[in-house]
Amino acid sequence: MRMLTRPLFFLGLFVVLSGCIVIPIGDLLKGPVLQEQVLVQGAGFFSQEKIAIIDVEGVITGEESGSVFTRQRDTVSETKARLNYVSQDPEVKAVVLRVSSPGGEVTACDVLHHEIARFKKKTGIPVVSFISGQGASGGYYLAVAGDTILANPTAIVGSIGVVLQHFDLSDLLGNIGVKVEPIKSSAGKDLNSPFRRMTGVEREVLQNLVNDMYERFVDVVTENRSELTREQVLAVADGRVLSGIEAAKAHLVDRVGYVADALEEAKQRANIQSATVVRYTRIPSSGANIYTESAVPQPSARQVHVSFPMDLTAGPKLLYLWRPLW
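The structure corresponding to this sequence follows.
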């Protein structure tokens, strides 16, 4: 043993003195893997018929955040990972998509809607959308991808519309003697700049962009809510929010209920009597039940940071978002 220990000691000393220490950063960045957690145990013993709850919480984004050692995955990749997990498990017979979101980035919301529609077509697994706290703007955009929508009676639903925030800091900068003079290739290159007043032509360009995204939102709702004509969708697509009860009356959702009702709906659509209810989480926890959310930290999951656009790396974003904090 002594003969083995001495060479190892000198080898370690050599590595330290030479500065050649290899730290497996890649492994540190991977983070915890998804794991299945049972919320309700079904009657099956050798085989189980499952209903998977997939949570979409907070502001929907397609960007990751965090530091070198702590990474927060974006909403799109997190939800896609869970859909992939379901598609690889033949025991999952239905999905409850539990939405608690005021919406978020236009493209992220659209990609998630597309992925859920693609998942349904590929697997044939029914998806029941359940709006718990909020299913507003992009949150509702996502919910309409389900085969049916239930909403908590006190949920906030709707806010069909688009917003592109603009700040005009030109007067403020002028008062402190700061003048910004960009060198640009064309007049519209610094479109939506906070450092000068917007021209009428520029406002028209941006308004057309917002209108295009709005028309797409209306199209998505019309295509997925067979109970509504396009004219009926337009009648409530003015940015307003409704309670779950009012949303049911307006046919934005099929009925009000609770998560247990969404699970019963999923069982009926999957034609199963007893189901094991599961979710997928990266954070182990005990005592979980059907009201336990995914416990995955999402970027800006519970708040919107209103940052004035001094950070020139962060461009303006089109948002399907209801969050009147500006």
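The two ends are 69 Å apart (CA to CA).
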